[in-house]
Design brief:
Layout (H helix, E strand, L loop, with lengths): L3 H11 L4 H4 L8 H12 L1 H7 L4 E4 L7 H4 L3 H5 L11 E5 L4 E8 L12 H16 L9 E9 L7 E13 L2 E10 L9 E10 L14 E2 L2 E2 L3 H10 L2
Antiparallel strand pairs: 1-2, 2-3, 3-5, 4-7, 5-6, 6-7, 8-9
Length: 237
């Protein structure tokens, strides 16, 4: 029965949930997570993006098969009470042009007391900028070639943040993306930019010739297609 979790993970990769399905997969477990979930879904920014036909809404972390989330940093390890309390909401513009994501970062994600660890902000920017541009790449997958971050202001814990990204150039297998993390504010107010980033993502040469077959089980677990398949699922939206 040891192979059961792996088989479940393979099934999740062969038949990943749609963007729309991810929006119904999370059920808040307590009053605090219900409050955070409601605040994000009803915030004017979320309402505005949801109404824009050029954007599709999803919760990308929920595309990771449940059997594998515990091994994913932002989708599992850092998810839960007082951390990334609810799976972030993401809106992706058609053809990988831009992306907006809203998250809540709890008090257990700090470096200095009350201040979100800069390494987490870097991870969020890496993932967010990648997710933004992947639809613009030939085979919808890539690797981070470089990532430059400038920290502008301390990011307070127990607060909502917005990640914004924009694909600025695509040349073949390469995509350049810029973005930042800012505070979530009410309409008419100016957000505070917490960190800015620019990155280059490169699609692996083997992406175009990799077998289209889904990952299979071997005596040691999942085969070599596993990581690439996960990248496609996790970053698609």
């Amino acid at each position: 029965m040891a192979s059961a979790p792996a088989l479940k993970a393979v099934n999740g990769m062969i038949n990943p949930p749609t963007d729309a399905e991810t929006l119904t997969m999370f059920v808040p477990a307590d009053e605090r997570s219900k409050e955070i979930e409601s605040f994000i879904t009803t915030h004017p920014l979320a309402v505005e993006l949801r109404a824009d036909p050029d954007f599709s809404e999803s919760r990308p972390h929920l595309k990771i098969p449940e059997a594998l989330r515990g091994h994913n940093l932002t989708g599992g390890t850092l998810a839960g009470p007082d951390k990334i309390v609810v799976p972030p909401f993401t809106w992706s513009e058609k053809s990988g042009k831009s992306l907006v994501s809203i998250s809540y970062l709890g008090k257990d994600l700090c470096g200095h007391p009350g201040i979100v660890h800069g390494g987490l902000l870097a991870t969020m920017l890496d993932e967010g900028l990648a997710r933004c541009c992947f639809p613009a790449l030939p085979n919808k997958v890539g690797m981070t070639a470089n990532l430059t971050i400038n920290y502008r202001k301390p990011a307070a814990a127990d607060a909502y943040v917005v990640l914004r990204a924009k694909t600025v150039k695509v040349e073949g297998r390469k995509a350049w993306v810029e973005g930042h993390i800012e505070t979530l504010v009410d309409p008419g107010k100016t957000p505070i930019i917490l960190a800015e980033a620019s990155a280059l993502f490169i699609e692996p040469k083997q992406a175009a010739v990799r077998s289209p077959e889904p990952p299979s089980l071997t005596s040691n677990g999942l085969n070599a297609n596993f990581n690439q398949t996960m990248a496609r699922i996790y970053t698609s939206s």
